[in-house]
Amino acid sequence: MKKAVKSQRPVNLDLRTIKLPITAYTSILHRISGVILFVGIAVLLLALDTSLSSEEGFEQVKSYLSNPLVKLIVWGLLSALLYHLVAGVRHLIMDTGHGETLQGGILGSKIVFIVSAVLILLTGVWVW
C-alpha cells in the first residue's frame, strides 16, 4: 500500500467561515438570480395566460397584483432579473477582453452591485 501524499488543500470547507472575494459573491448571486428567474418565469407565464384568457381572468390577476405580498414577489423577480442582466453585461464585457485582471474583476463586481442596487431601488419605487 502506498502512503498518501500530504495534501495542502484546506481541511475546513465551511463556506460560512471562508472569506470569499467580491468577485465570488458576484458570480454566486448571478447563478442564484438565474435559478430564481427560471422558477419565477413559470409563475409569470401562468399569470399571463390567466390574464389573456378572459376579462374575468384579467380582473383576477389585477386583484392579485394589488396584494402587498404579491407586489413583494414581483419586486423580487424584477430584482433578480435586473441583477442577472447587469451581471450578464459584465460577463459580455469581460468576453471582449476588458476587466479580466484581478483589479478589473473587483472593479467590475463593485459596479455590478452599485448599478444593480440603484435599478432595484428604482424598481421598488415603481412597483409600490
TrEMBL record:
One Gene Ontology term from the biological process aspect of the record: tricarboxylic acid cycle
Subcellular location: Cell inner membrane
Keywords annotated in UniProt: Cell inner membrane, Cell membrane, Electron transport, Heme, Iron, Membrane, Metal-binding, Transmembrane, Transmembrane helix, Transport, Tricarboxylic acid cycle
Residues where heme binds: H84
GO molecular function, one term: metal ion binding
Pathway: Carbohydrate metabolism; tricarboxylic acid cycle
Record field: transmembrane: 28-48, 68-86, 107-127
Topology within the bilayer: Multi-pass membrane protein
Cofactor names: heme
Cofactor comment: The heme is bound between the two transmembrane subunits.
The keyword Aminoacyl-tRNA synthetase belongs to this UniProt entry's keyword annotation: no
Primary localisation category: membrane
Signal peptide: none
One Gene Ontology CC term in the entry: plasma membrane
SUPFAM superfamilies xref list: Fumarate reductase respiratory complex transmembrane subunits
InterPro entries attached to this UniProt entry: SQR/QFR_C/D, Succ_DH_cyt_bsu_CS, Succ_DH_cytb556, SuccDH_FuR_B_TM-su
Subunit structure: Part of an enzyme complex containing four subunits: a flavoprotein, an iron-sulfur protein, plus two membrane-anchoring proteins, SdhC and SdhD. The complex can form homotrimers.
Recorded family membership: Belongs to the cytochrome b560 family.
Record function comment: Membrane-anchoring subunit of succinate dehydrogenase (SDH).
PANTHER family registered for this protein in UniProt: SUCCINATE DEHYDROGENASE CYTOCHROME B560 SUBUNIT, SUCCINATE DEHYDROGENASE CYTOCHROME B560 SUBUNIT, MITOCHONDRIAL
Name assigned to this protein: Succinate dehydrogenase cytochrome b556 subunit
Species classification: Bacteria, Pseudomonadati, Pseudomonadota, Gammaproteobacteria, Pseudomonadales
